[in-house]
Design brief:
It is built from five helices and no strands. By secondary structure, it is mainly alpha-helical. The chain folds into two domains: 105 residues, no CATH class; 42 residues, no CATH class. The two termini are 50 Å apart.
Length: 165
């Protein structure tokens, strides 16, 4: 499923983090994960995977619950839920950073590709390069012949054969 909005893959993570921050604030205020806080996670009026994950947190047993009174149990459950939400926020931060890095790399690649000339222009540049290379080799051969003649060597006429496709 493609979540990109205007080319930004990080939008879902920004949205999820915002929702989780609201839920976290509600848990801190109410002391527990309420149904009203879970309602905030609904998207388009429907429950989603985030809603389900948070609902599962309410049913996770608290370690040592038998030895705690009601207030301590409620506080420990609240801390457990807040810790889980903090972990989820860290995970979304990490995923958002990965997407952001990927977006930057893709943008750099697009910029680099936009600088390259078209294939017709590249073909023309290669033909010019080949022609210049041939001229260079002819000039070097001619220079070598002239230098040998100056040194008194008998230089036979050039026998050079160039082959092309």
């Amino acid at each position: 499923m493609d979540y990109r909005i205007s080319g930004h893959e990080t939008f879902p993570f920004r949205y999820l983090k915002q929702v989780l921050r609201h839920v976290r604030a509600a848990v801190e205020k109410d002391g527990e994960l309420t149904d009203a806080a879970l309602q905030e996670t609904h998207y388009g009026g429907k429950a989603n995977s985030l809603t389900k994950r948070l609902a599962e947190l309410r049913s996770v047993p608290v370690a040592g619950a038998d030895e705690l009174d009601e207030a301590a149990l409620k506080a420990k459950r609240r801390d457990q839920i807040l810790t889980a939400i903090d972990r989820m926020l860290e995970q979304y931060d990490w995923q958002q950073q990965r997407c952001s890095d990927r977006e930057e790399a893709e943008e750099s690649a697009r910029e680099a590709a936009s600088v390259l000339p078209s294939s017709e222009v590249l073909d023309r540049i290669l033909r010019y390069e080949t022609a210049l290379e041939r001229q260079l080799y002819r000039a070097m051969n001619q220079l070598e012949r002239l230098q040998r003649r100056r040194m008194g060597e008998v230089v036979p006429p050039p026998i050079s054969m160039e082959m092309s496709h």
